Amino acid sequence: MFPYTLQQLQDIFKAQLFGNSRQLIEQIWIDSRNIVEGKNGIFFALKGAQLDGHRFVEAAYEKGIRNFVVTHLPEVSMNANFLVVENTLVALQQWASFHRALFHYPVIGITGSNGKTIVKEWLYQLLYKKIKLIRSPKSYNSQIGVPLSILEMMPEIDLSIIELGISQPGEMEKIARIVRPDIALITNVGEAHAHFFENRSQHIKEKLKIAKESNIIIYPKDDADIERWITTEYSDKKLISFGISELAQVRLLEISNGELQLEVNSKKIHFPFQYSDRAAISNLLSCVAVLTALNWDISEFFHEISNLIPVEMRLEIKDGDENMVIINDSFNSDLSSIPIALNVLNQQTKPLKTLVITDVLQNRLHGEQLYTEVANWVNAYDIQKVYLIGEEIVNYKNKFKNFNASFPATQDFLERFSASDFVGEALLLKGARKFELEKISKKFESKSHDTILEVNLQNLLENVNYFRSRLQPETKLMCMVKAFGYGTGGFEIAQALEAHRVDYLGVAYADEGADLRKKGIRTPIMVMNPEQSSYDTIIDHNLEAEIYSLRVLDKLTQKLIDKQVKTSFPIHIKLNTGMNRLGFKPKEISELIQRLADNPYVSVKSIFSHLATSDNMADQSFVHQQFSVYNEMYERISFNLGYQPLRHILNTSGILNFPEYQMDMVRLGIGMYGVASNEVHKKHLKTVVTFKTVISQITELEPGESVSYGRTFQAEKPIKLATLPVGYADGIKRSQSNMGEVSIHGKTAKIVGTVCMDMIMVDVSHINCQEGDEVIIFGENPDLESVAEKCNTISYEILTSVSSRVKRVYLRE
Question: Which stretch of 198-212, 503-517, 655-669 has the lowest confidence by average pLDDT?
Fold first, then answer.
């Protein structure tokens, strides 16, 4: 980043400076966990709804940070420099605003309810070979992310692309004032965050504040509300619209056989495009409109457009052979993406970490200056082996402290190594797309299978944030990772949640918690169903047991005595308030109080219960009845304990439907995966899990011919049949025979015939598809709830039924 001195920052912030005014600042940190090199770095102690960054000043100091922006000096004496301001977030934004004013090259600001990140990344893919440009890292589009993105701006750049996201009224004006985009792009205005606005008009009006200081506005012509506001408020600006409307400057005319036909400023063009879904086409139209605004000839980009790849191809985390973890970030190797990928590698719990990195092709720097910066980032992390691929990076191998070997091309690496050379390691593949590092991933990954369960960890965390936004700042959050993380991977989900600083994790059985501990998870873990044979495991792995009966309390206490545990062991008391599964009933409370009073071996961390009807708003009275019973029992127990353990009763549905009962903690489960019983809230949640496969074979079926076992389907007319390599052994319910549906190229295909162990057949007569094409079993469409409804069950069962033989792939930004 562009260097500043503390004196300059003091002047920008109008801050009190305690320390050396000449100290140079070249790095910004807002999360103490991510700090790997403290030299010339500054830590902003930001205050959020749930966390206060001042709590982590000491942690940042221990990692080498010696410069801080705070609202008050720490109580502990530190040999460091401090800038004291009224509001640390405002200070960060003031810095970004000052920095933005230094540069006069074009800035594109992108906002919208959906598509911001994809459009930004696609524009980058289209332009990076032609000009020097930077864009917001990851999804840095918030009140914090936008200033961090702006502070990446450098003098030698031709274009900057910045995402701007909002969730509440008043936010856009603040960040738009920082960005001051020359070109403002509005992708769409949908339901995301709409609950914070009085109506859609207010939501649109807030989004459009991005355009106040813009010269050019790009917007969707087909949205009548946006059109009305744009033409009313900004008629003095240059307007470029996109859509299917005859009046759109960038107009979609036809989609046919993998080609798009557009009309751009009255000129017809056509080119290949591999995506046919509405969202992808809208995103592409946005990109074409931007290129038009920049006065580019669209025909120069036909090749790049045909090779656009989805954002999801970045940062895949997969299990590999020989107990490896493979992190595949082989889309690009621009400098700003390197520390992001290295941080993901650093978070892995494998003791040995290896990096394969290629020539850096997409960057403003060159030669020694570029690779010195790359090496500085790599050397800051504890990476045991570094392999270089490419003709340029090898010239600077001596700059990498743990350099192991270099290769001119990926094929040379593949010929030299096999998975057995990386036993038990975490392997990061970081490089430009031309080097095809995905070939290494495919060779080393385990369970090679066309059927995968794709888990978007970023979407999961955004869903967690949505539920957090419904909580009071002081309310703690327990996230349930039982049943192998609802079938998605217990450790991977727990690792992401721990990095997101949730307060507790919940598992069903002790073995699940022990496995998380062995893999490095340190967050407190509550075991919901402790078996009497599991007390050793609970104690040895520092787990916290749910106590639901006097028998369980006595057994655990005896085990604590036998193992000579010296400190009070944490337990959680489960109360039966009407669910009638597990827990103490009101008549048992007196005996429980007596047992606890005579027991110095345990300490009650929380007292909780479980609602039976929190998802049924037609039966609210029973929820209130349960809470009344719970509250009375809690008061009796806590009074006799002499202290107040944490109180919690709400699950996912309870958080949304009965916020008045949040108390000290809530328990979030299926909601993390985008499932909610309340439709008002469901539209604000993102899809986390996508179950996908491919077409194995396409055949023609004549009238009278039958399909699968039992001949339960017979063709009445000629149809085109696709066979998919997935069946009930993978998690497809047999009840979906002749009634289930999948999605191919955004179109619905019905399952025909009986579901087999390893295969299903679908009718694709109406779909232009080929063998090898992707098939969505559930995800965005069909979604988890609709599949569950067809199977006459619940989303939990569908999700947890996906077989372990289906490879899990984890996506992170």
Answer: 198-212
Of 209, 482, 574, 692, which one is the catalytic site residue? 482
Lookup: tokens for 805:
């033989």
Residue 683: count other Cβ atoms within 10 Å of its Cβ: 13
Of the candidates 114, 112, 106, 113, the one whose C-alpha atom is nearest the C-alpha of residue 135 is: 106
Catalytic entry in 39, 130, 683, 709: 709
| End-to-end Cα, the chain, rounded Å | 21
- Tell the burial category of 564 from Cβ atoms under 10 Å away from its Cβ (0-12, 13-18, 19+): exposed
Q: How far apart are CA 33 and CA 105, in angstroms?
A: 34
pLDDT digits over 449-494, tens only? 689 999 999 899 999 999 998 999 899 999 999 987 788 888 889 9
Residue 172, pLDDT score: 92
Whether the Cβ atoms of residue 196 and residue 167 lie closer than 8 Å to each other: yes
Q: Which helix (H) or strand (E) is 798 found in, with range?
A: helix 795-800
Q: Express each pLDDT in 40-56 by its tens digit.
A: 999 999 998 778 999 99
* Known active-site residue 661: no
Per-residue pLDDT, 617: 85
Q: Which of 748, 719, 723, 752 is nearest to 738 (CA)?
A: 752
Q: What length does the chain have?
A: 813
* Residue 709 annotated among the catalytic residues of the structure: yes
Q: What's the rounded Cα separation, in Å, for the pair 165 and 692? A: 30
Residue 480 DSSP SS3: strand
Distance CA 188, CA 203 (A): 11
- Write down the residue that tokens 């300490």 correspond to: 603
Write a three-state SS string for 86-148.
Answer: CCHHHHHHHHHHHHHCCCCCCEEEEECCCCHHHHHHHHHHHHCCCCCEEECCCCCCCCCHHHH
